[in-house]
Specification:
Layout lengths: L6 H17 L4 H18 L5 H12 L2 H15 L7
Helix pairs in contact: 2-3, 2-4
Protein name: DUF3243 domain-containing protein
InterPro entries: DUF3243, Uncharacterised_YmfJ, YmfJ/YflH_sf
Pfam families: DUF3243 (PF11588)
Length: 86
């Protein structure tokens, strides 16, 4: 089973990666930029595995670059209290 199959698993996975990056000293701006790059990759290269991912993909695809950065930042905020390390 992939972490993409279940949205809660996906949020836990992202939360764990966020905690790991911050624990290694990654700055907020770098986290934000990485989230933006990952969002673009997922929207363009990975099929949505559930309804939540489909909505995020659709929002990403209609957004301009500034809005995509906002979506990425909101995803970071959403998962900051998620994961097994929270």
């Amino acid at each position: 089973m992939s972490v993409l199959d279940n949205f809660d698993s996906w949020k836990d996975f992202l939360g764990d990666r966020l905690h790991q990056a911050k624990g290694q000293g990654m700055q907020e701006q770098a986290v934000s930029e990485l989230a933006y790059e990952i969002g673009g990759y997922l929207a363009n290269s990975v099929d949505a595995k559930n309804e939540q991912e489909a909505v995020l993909r659709d929002l990403w695809n209609v957004a301009d670059e500034k809005e995509q950065h906002a979506i990425a930042n909101m995803m970071v905020k959403m998962v900051q209290n998620e994961g097994t390390q929270s």
